[in-house]
Amino acid sequence: MGPVSGVGVGAVAGGLVVASGGPPTAQRLVLVTASFGTSVLLAAVMPTIGLVFVVMPFVGAASVAVISLSNATLQLNSDSKLRGRVMAIFSMALIGSTPIGGPLMGWIGETVSARVSLLIGGFAAIVAALYGWMRLTQSTATDADTAAAGVQAAEVATSA
């Protein structure tokens, strides 16, 4: 089994895991994005091609998980009146970035090394996951502050 077929096997497995994993959440999306970045970084640092073949199913599984969870999360959390527009922008960003990023990463792989291309991609996914985690942490803190203010307002209203 070569690296591309390994990605395919992993993609099928990743799709099945995501489909059976319950409702899509931002937390799951951040987790699979971090998993994708980690698996790509692992592929980049493998010392032999045989070990790269072992890692590639995980890259495929995480890749499909990121795409399907981001798609589902956007669809389920978008206002129904704006869902078509949101998905059009998502599709444009997903498909439209390939003609820019693909040749750029190919050029880096050709002129520097394939490892460097993978390292850049893996780090980019990790940075995206960290950004998502920070945003989730901020929104959770804001939600907790809002809930605490609501409880305090209710206590004041009941004691008056």
Quick gist of this model?
This protein is mainly α. Helix content is 88%, strand content 0%.
Low-confidence stretches: 153-159
Strand content: under 5%
Describe the largest sheet: none
Count of beta strands: 0
Quickly count the domains: 1
* Average pLDDT level: 87
Describe the structure.
- With 160 residues, the chain is mainly α.
- It has one domain.
- The protein has helices at residues 3-20, 26-45, 49-77, 83-96, 98-111, 114-159.
- The protein is globular, with a radius of gyration of 20 Å.
- The N and C termini lie far apart (73 Å).
Write the layout of secondary structure elements.
Blueprint: H1 3-20, H2 26-45, H3 49-77, H4 83-96, H5 98-111, H6 114-159
Summarize this structure as a short list of keywords or feature phrases.
single chain; 160 residues; mainly alpha; 0% strand
